[in-house]
Protein 1
Amino acid sequence: MSPQQRAEELRRIINAHNYRYYVLNDPTVSDRDFDRLLKELEQLEKEHPEVDDPLSPTHRVGSDLTKGFEQALHIRPMLSLGNTYSIEEVDAFFNRVKEGLEGEQFQIVGEMKFDGTSISLIYEDGRLVRAVTRGDGTRGDIVTDNIKTIRSIPLTLQGEGWPRNLEIRGEVLLPWKEFERLNAERAFNEEPLFANPRNAASGTLKLLDPKEVSKRGLDAIFYYVLGDTLPYDNHYDNLMAARSWGFKVSEHVRLLDSLEQVNEYITYWDTGRKALPVATDGLVFKVNSLKQQLNLGFTAKSPRWAIAYKFPAERALTRLRYVSFEVGRMGLITPVSNLEPVLLSGTVVKRASLHNQDIMQRLDLHEHDMLWVEKGGEIIPKITGVDEAQRLPDAQRVQFVTQCPSCGTPLVRIEGEAAWICPNKSGCVPQIAGRIEHFVGRRMMNIEGIGEEMVMQLVTTGLVKDIADIYDLTVEKLTALEGVADKGANRIIKGIDESRQVPFERVVYALSIPYVGETGSKKLARALGDIDTIATAPYERLVEIEDIGPRIAESIIQYFGNQENRIIIDRLRQAGVQMAMPAGHDTSLSDTFAGKTIVISGTFTHHSRDEYKAIIEAHGGKNGSSVSKNTDFILAGDNMGPAKLQKAEKLGVPVIDEDAFLAMLPN
Ligand code: IVH
């Protein structure tokens, strides 16, 4: 394979992992393996500059910038640390430092690597003036109000010796206990769970409502003091001073004098960390003397005087019993590995999702293979590999099913995706049961008393074949079922009755229209007002709605184009379910742009393009797709296309910037 081909292959793989991690929140590779891929690509691009690409994932600086927060430049850029995964690599770091310091004596500070989200706090005259997230390393979001809710952070400094201009950096964390409490609460409310405390901490810090943040139980631990006039000439003493000023500094920071002591620190914390109340994903080693730090300096990305050592992910080897194929409410088939039970990070693992056909095939699973199960920083176990040496001699490769494991219907593949679905929407039991479970769920119609087992009973007895059948249930029909008493039946009927008052936007979500989630349902309901308008809305109208993209719009059209679905909706209407927003609901906010056609071009800072489209509509205007003599004005952001600009000039169409546009809106 040529370097060019390998580089392209690596970019494809890395981009796919990035997507799973950042977008789907569902990584399928360990940090270590991911770093290995990235390192290989970096090396390749260094050795063969001709294969480099400005859009290569190696040139992507991780960013957590969010709309809705003002941003600030960091006084000093927030760099990250180089990662190592073995004693040998730490040894090599030690030797590089030794060489760099030309034989000078040096001490190392050993610290925990806390697994949260980093924060920079600025204090002036002992008062907290600003808290900024890492962002892209150069600028971050100002989250001062949220940070102030963290009780362990001093708002004014205690003690003495703090510099008048102080910057201190640390990690915002959600302790395990709070993380579990938060996820339990989210599970109860049927909200998606956080994969790990890190995601929960960064998600919480970015909430727009500080009141909500204060309820989450965040904490913060500090590990880096910066300023022009620090009290001591070494990192360790400055950290201890910071502790005396009121900051939480880890009690496990240690001064280490030799590589041997570094090794002991690693050995101890490899298991010791499991008893800590907060998540850690490694250790950090820093040269203690600030003068020596200065001499060693920085590379473009990280300091030469510090290194992170990442703990190996916890993993175990266990035998595959069989692969099952599960059918979701939308008909999606998910392969699941069923395993010989194995203990991993304190819990017994028996099953792990294989996600889809591509991921399953990449593992090249054979019957009764020995599989590596990993937990890493994630809560959900993953299959990361197969021990091929232990493969049984005649083992057959595990094949993805071609027919629905439940109803036998031949599966169809969704175009452009790795997903297979069972198209038998109205006759496949797990799909029917899944839709009913969703329909009665707390965030949808909130019908109490119908749990998973009851749904199965209703479906298998044929009493309920679709969501509308729920409204034909009676106490008599329910008590005829095995194990259902009068009390339970009455409770269900009461729940069904109350569900008739559930607001329309939740009804839309309850219908299980493929790709239409909770937010999409709300936007649809609010923009179009009632079910008939949604059902008959043309594609162009649907994609104008915020959060409704082409795929969702097509899915909506397909859903309402289906006769069976229309009958179900009519029956729900007959049963008294809300099919419109309450009277008086107005989808328009003003008629500022009534009769006007506006074209949007470029990129914006205050709102996204889709939001601007929605704003235009909500104020009575129309979104035009190209500049013509019918265009009233162009809302132009940065980098507006030159062709559009020329055309606008030629036709005399006014070009208005973002601020001027926003100023046109009524308050
Ligand atoms: S020192 C210039 N110390 O790890 C060095 N970082 O990849 C600044 N982290 O962004 C970082 N625990 O969020 C340092 N004891 C510790 C740390 C730590 C966790 C995080 C931090 C940073 C990332 C580096």
Protein 2
Amino acid sequence: MTYRTRFAPSPTGPLHLGHAYSALLARDMAEAHRGKFLLRIEDIDQSRARPHWEAQIYDDLAWLGLTWPQPVMRQSDRLQFYNAALRKLWALGLLFHCTCNRRDIQEAASAPQEGGAPIMGPDGIVYPGTCRHRHSQDGAVPFPGNAALRLDMARAATMLSQPEALAFLETGQGPDGQTGHIRFTEEDLLTTIGDVVLCRRDMGTSYHLSVVLDDAAQGITHVVRGRDLFEASKIHVVLQRVLGLPVPTYHHHDLIRDAEGKRLAKRDDARAIAKYRDDGLRPEDIRAMVGL
Ligand code: GLU
Ligand code: ZN
């Protein structure tokens, strides 16, 4: 199998130093293994994606010296595949229709009988389970169009009872230094992640579902990305297992921080690659700044 990495930016703002690090590292790793480096545009959030940011991504990456095969995969072209996977999960009885808004979730999660502060997962408050009874009944109920759908994590975990299903190989590091063979349990999934949204009503998909389907479609063997997504990888492994997709190796890298140790936000335009370039810096200066 060819070693393949990817860089998967969202065209919702300028690329900054953190993106440059991620893209260059993914390319360097592919090159070191005589593999391929691919690009993917993650533009499912059409309320925030803009064509000029996409154009800027191509410009910035080319300036950094990166090349990638054409055509570039764009998530907005792949809604039919996301929908097909959702229908499959629905037929397996793994999804339920959720009508809660943010406030409902906050109130249910902080109700006195729940005890203590709500637990935060990769997508915010761990879902308190309000709509979990609204199941597909293993496909007996027709697939609801235009609805928010959540993964029933308990059912998914039950389906994955074989040992080794809840595991992946990490060649970088998680936030607590986790590396190597990472195992997680059903208990971890239920308490720290919960019933995540797989289909947003406004998108017809979600980051988690799309990233898993696209990494598989592009034949990605090594997912290189920031450490902030380490916990989300557990969701991705669950989805890969229930959908019968290969589980790639993960490499979660350091987050590039500013002088005060704060994470670089996307809107931190002062650190935009384009700004450094306008200031006369060279691509090799960017490499040096991110420690490559
Ligand atoms: N589009 C995501 C981001 O820009 C990429 C996440 C990933 O690499 O899995 O954060
Ligand atoms: Zn709900």
Protein 3
Amino acid sequence: MAQRRKLIVGNWKMHGSRAANAELLSALLAGRPYLGDLAVCVPAVYLHETAAALAGSDLRWGAQDVSEHAQGAYTGEVSAAMLAEAGCRYVIVGHSERRAYHAESDELVAAKAQAALAKGVTPIVCVGETLAQREAGETETVVKRQLSAVIHRLAHCAAEMVVAYEPVWAIGTGRTASPEQAQAVHAVLRAQLHAATGRGATMKILYGGSVKPDNAATLFAQADIDGGLIGGASLKASEFIAIARAA
Ligand code: 13P
């Protein structure tokens, strides 16, 4: 089996303040070393101070969204070049909250992933089904459709992305997919990635949705789960560190 280093990414969503961030980041630095790779995706306005706090460390940082456009009259948008300049290693694209509240389509998500890669920022592409879709037996169809749009757009660069499986019904609900449920979907996604790129065995597929210190180890022990995309628990240093240790 290919060795894939675990990756744990915090998604702060719209949380934080300069004071709270400084405290959280210094606690994360103090909690090193980690066995896997660790990153935080912060609100764009905090990227520069996050970069300053983490510079010279082995922690990485990133953003939570990016424009599909390179530059221009797009009020309120942030370009991939700007993220690259802020030292971002990662950007989350296609999070279910953006798909739901900002009507982001599979095609738009794919264009954003492409814009990020063009500037050397690794997109963390989120896919996941709603509860209604799961109950209707559509999980596989939905996640494969979401991923396939990105694979087609990225073409030979598709192997450069990170994928995150985040079942919508497990986000912020305290309801986690069981390790077996998550593994089953991860295996489907890996097969799809491998068929498209020939490099599926080396690509990272993260799980996200109510990952906590007490369930992280069993999730990360699954064959195709390469780490986590952590929401709520990434805001508390002790919990995020405990999750990172579980990797
Ligand atoms: P929670 O960990 O708060 O469920 O959020 C998951 C998520 O959406 C990460 O992107």
